[in-house]
Design brief:
Elements lengths: L1 H33 L12 E2 L6 E2 L6 E6 H6 L15 E6 L2 E6 L15 E5 L2 E3 L12 E8 L13 E7 L8 E9 L3 E13 L2 E12 L4 E2 L9 E15 L2 E14 L8 E2 L2 E3 L11 E3 L19 E2 L7 E15 L3 E19 L8 E20 L5 E22 L2 E2 L3 E4 L5 E4 L5 E3 L10 E20 L4 E22 L11 E2 L2 E2 L3 H4 L1 E4 L5 E19 L2 E12 L2 E2 L5 E2 L2 E14 L4 E21 L9 E21 L5 E20 L4 E2 L2 E2 L7 E3 L11 E9 L1 E2 L5 E11 L2 E2 L10 E2 L2 E11 L5 E8 L7 E6 L5 E5 L4 E9 L1
Amino acid sequence: MMVTSTSKKSQVCAAVLTALLAQQAVAQESDEQAGESNKQTGLEVIEVTAQKRVQSLQDVGISVTALNADAIQRYGIDDISRIELITPGVAFGFIGSDAKIAIRGANSNNTFADNASIAGFFADGVYRPRASQQSQAYFDVARIEVLKGPQGTLYGRNTFAGAVNLTTNRATLGDFDMGVKLGFERFNRRSTETFINQPITDDLAIRVAVQTVRSDGYIKNVGPAGDLGQDDSFNYRLSSYWQPSATFDATVRFTSIKQKGTTPGIFSAEGLPAPVNQDGVTDVRGQILDFGNPAPGSAGTNARFDTPNEVSYDTENKRDNQEDNLTVELNWDLDSVTVKSVSSYTDFSSALDFDGDFSPTPGYAYFWDEAVESVTQELQISSNNDSNLFWTAGAYYSKDQIGFGFSQFRTQTNAPFGTVTDSQGREFTLFNGTESIDPFGAGSFSDYTDFQEIDVTTLGLFFQGEYSISDALTLIAGIRYNEEEKDTTTSFGTSKASDGSFLPGVSKFGINGRPIDLYNYTVADGRAGSETFDIVTWKIGFNYDLNDNSMIYGSGSTGFLSGGLNSNGSSFDQQESEAWEVGMKNRFLDNSLQLNFAFYMNEFSNLVTQRLTFPEGNTSTAVTVSENAGASDVLGFEAEVNWVPTEYWFINAGLSLMDAEYDSFGVTNPFQLNDGLLSSDVNNGLLLLDGATTPWSPDMTLSLGAGHEFNLGDKGTITPYLQFYYSAEYDTDDVSIYASQLQDSYTKTDLRVTWLSLDETLSLELFAENIEDEEVLARTNVGGNNLVQGSYLHPRNYGVKLRYHF
């Protein structure tokens, strides 16, 4: 293993040197051809704030995919789910409201309970701690930046593999501005987005942005309840900008998000086939797929496990996500230094309902509740002079009060599972569904519920400096101290009073409301815990300008995922990342061709896995805990190309080549057998995945896009744009062995045709996305009764968008 790893690293280093030398020759040749010409034609300059200050994308010595408003429109980016189609090295999955971002071989499979996404999500400079907050706020957007590689120095916690910066439009001084966007799409999706920018005085302006979304569900429910994935959202943002002097400005934003409708699942949206052997016994390496629903009471129902984006449920899978955020940004220019203060308050909640047995049989529902109240404060001080040293120093503080809980309410009486005896005389339970005797007979009654509360206090101190050795060479170094204090308690609830009678709102026929609002909760003994985590993260690097249009850069950086507290009071340590990258950024052909590429090596350690435990004296209720259990290595290459060969053509391309594998990693085998052997007889029930490819890590992705603007004279212009995406196969579960979790290689093709009026105030766009109608797995897992479950990315979509800009 070590010899192979060393050999790979040597090959990468050789490839890096060869590529950089070749690119230096090309850059010099391009510079000679350009001669004295420095005119800025062709590609526009994209500004980013990846390093906490405004810079040109081409001057930033890290891998960043940056999308301004025009690019967001061109690629059809309405939320985070389509970022992967134009960002090499990034993959997207989801369950329920949680975004599951993967970057360069690190994945966000576990984001429930006290676990965070591997990519920090920052909206207008403010970190959002829950993965369910990463799919929100995508309206009136000015810019999206995807930073690849650990960002532990300037950004801090939970930027283990990267970060996503979402910047919304702020109010602007000067002129009145207004815009409207209307959308009509498949699944009866109707959306509106409106903004008004109104200057009040010469130094004060306000902006109002409003978004509404309504849609039928894209997951068809043939059962008695409604379709899944329905939208019913109303979101708005109020912002003001005040600049009383040339040395001070203040931006205030208040954002309110209300997302209702129906959820595409909690742990998944629908059932998938289970791997079994010839006797029908579940086997992680089984080659036969059983499409039946294994849940008790589901016999005789149409499971629809063989039909993606189609289910048969009786429970109304309601969704109610709400978030209010107030952010205040203050900037001072004090001659030799600039000072920035970012303060915020966020109140977020999420409530999801789901069918507990994946069937139309009544009497079983799941509930998930999540709540976050956060206060953050960051202070940044940066140099502002002509010195060779540019530096940024800062301090960060946040206080998060987080709560989350899972509940179920089951009133069914069902026939017991059958058994089978194999050729070796072993008896096994057959998870093949049983008859429903009485949906409200309470023979298998359960009102299990728990709710974990965690108080998190985070502190950070950071410094990063850039020293120009010469006009061409800049050295970079940074360091950050991070500390997190966590305290937790877990409560259990019951639907019954002390005399055994049901509480108000609860009966054997169901629950009129949510357990979190109706049950009696008591703090559990022995389930409290506290822990303090601290870590120092660092960065070193260099930028070397070959000429005005080409730069070589290199860096080493570290990051981490927060340590956490389980609901039983135990803890797990921080997961750590170390990354090394060398790359090149270029503009050729008189600023019409941009070629950026990078080679990288990542090492991830202390990776977390899940294990089932049983509280002392209780053998019927399992508790899932997180534990540190592995490490992985990743080698990769990425390239992005943007080319404007003429003023009417635009061509883009992206390539990712990745080799990501576990050094060591183990997960619990959720099935009864492991290649015919009892699961408990093979590594004490663990599946050892040493050398296996990490999930959501396709060894190759490729995107290609091309658009051409046709001039219609006084009728305006019309621009068709074709976008193509290819992904190699990848796994969608940490248990990356069983057949039904594997996502095969696939392609997606999008087509947009946009008409723009001569005065550029009105546009009409016709589009089709995922023309192939590929059924792409977003994430899979295995639940109770060996029920394999998963979610699919959005199916084919098409529609029209009308935009008017005053």
